Amino acid sequence: MRRVPEEQGHDGAGGEAAPGPSTPAGVETLMTELSRLVQPLVEQSSWWERRGKDCSVLGAAFLALPPAFLLLGSSGLLAFAAGVVLMGVAHAVITIKGTHLASHGALSESQAWAKFWAVFFIEVCGSFSAQAGVRGHIKLHHAHTNIVGLGDSSLWKVPFLPRAVYLFLAPLAVPIITPLVALAHLRRHGAAAAAARTVAMVTLGLYSQYWLLVWVSGFRSVPGALLCMLGCRAMFSIPYIHVNIFQHVGLPMFSPTRRPKRIYQMSHGVLNLPRNPVLDWIFGHSLISCHVEHHLFPTLSDNMCLKVKPVVSRYLMEKQLPYQEDSYLSRLQLFFHKYQELMVFAPPITELVGVQ
Ligand SMILES: [Zn+2]
């Protein structure tokens, strides 16, 4: 049985730290070795592969908005329903795939543009605080994946809710809860200038959609326009909550004082779902079938995660490390039947001793 050394410090969401003097080289070099296999693939890739494909998907979502607003103005039931679906899909692509890539700075090589896109996607489109989004996703979730008390997904746990309500009803309130959580975060952490910008950007995003529904789609009643906004914004809230819990909760959890090396942490604490045309477009590969790859190489775009997937999966299997995959339905059944254990009680800590 081989004891896996723990990692005391952490290098954030980027790559692996350089081998330290006290770390056995065999373990330390695994991540370095994997990076050496992945790096040439990234360097050989064109701009289209590295960023273009994902930017095009986001661009297509924005192009879908004008026809969606026009269809929403139709008096025919079928055309109106098509408008709702088109608006819902476009909004989900922009606010799930777009905000995720923007939070990682994966949409641009320029830091200034990356910051602009983070504010645009997270605040204007996603009605959330860019500061809170980046802090929660990059600095906690990615840097401390499945470390108890830090990146343990407890954010997603609402233990007082019964399982059916949590899994199928409460997610519909996500569009209302999101700006309220942002406001609460700003009250606790936000500097005045950042808080004022966030409030202005979130208001701009919400009011723009409302204004277009009134003046382009012809909504005459305030409740009607607000209900339409809620319906479109909540269309993919249920899979959004599911995906967020399915890929980490129930997998090994680690103690903050005895954390494993990054490659063990990610291979044990992250799970991939199978490819699915709808979810691939809306969430992006890095949140669905390439979540393991995304946690190992978080700055890669969705398309690049898909490209390096065969190399990463083969490497982890060759090294007899876990490469965890499960279907959406199987995870849903697991969470439904073991809801108390997974979502209510505190997760037990896994010591990576003798596991490999
Ligand atoms: Zn991420």
Strand order of the largest sheet: 1-2
Shape from CA axes?
Answer: globular
Rg computed from alpha carbons, rounded to a whole number of angstroms: 21 Å
Number of strands: 4
Our estimate of the beta-strand percent is under 5%
State the domain count: 1
How does the helix and strand content classify structurally?
Answer: mainly alpha
Major beta-sheet overview: 2 strands, antiparallel
Mean pLDDT: 87
**Ligand species:** zinc ion
Task: Assign a percent range to the helix content.
Answer: 55-70%
Fold and architecture overview:
- With 356 residues, the chain is an all-alpha fold.
- It has one domain.
- It has helices at residues 25-44, 47-63, 65-72, 77-103, 111-125, 130-142, 163-169, 174-189, 192-215, 222-233, 237-246, 262-269, 277-283, 291-296, 302-318, 328-337, 339-344; strands at residues 6-7, 259-260, 271-272, 324-325.
- It is globular.
- It starts with 5 loop residues before the first strand and ends in a 12-residue tail after the last helix.
- Mean pLDDT is 87; it is low at 1-23.
- The structure holds zinc ion.
- Residues 100, 104, 137, 142, 294, 298 line the site of zinc ion.
- Zinc ion binds at residues 100, 104, 137, 142, 294, 298.
Could you give the topology of this structure?
Elements: E1 6-7, H1 25-44, H2 47-63, H3 65-72, H4 77-103, H5 111-125, H6 130-142, H7 163-169, H8 174-189, H9 192-215, H10 222-233, H11 237-246, E2 259-260, H12 262-269, E3 271-272, H13 277-283, H14 291-296, H15 302-318, E4 324-325, H16 328-337, H17 339-344
Parallel strand pairs: 3-4
Antiparallel strand pairs: 1-2
The structure holds zinc ion.
Zinc ion is lined by residues 100, 104, 137, 142, 294, 298.
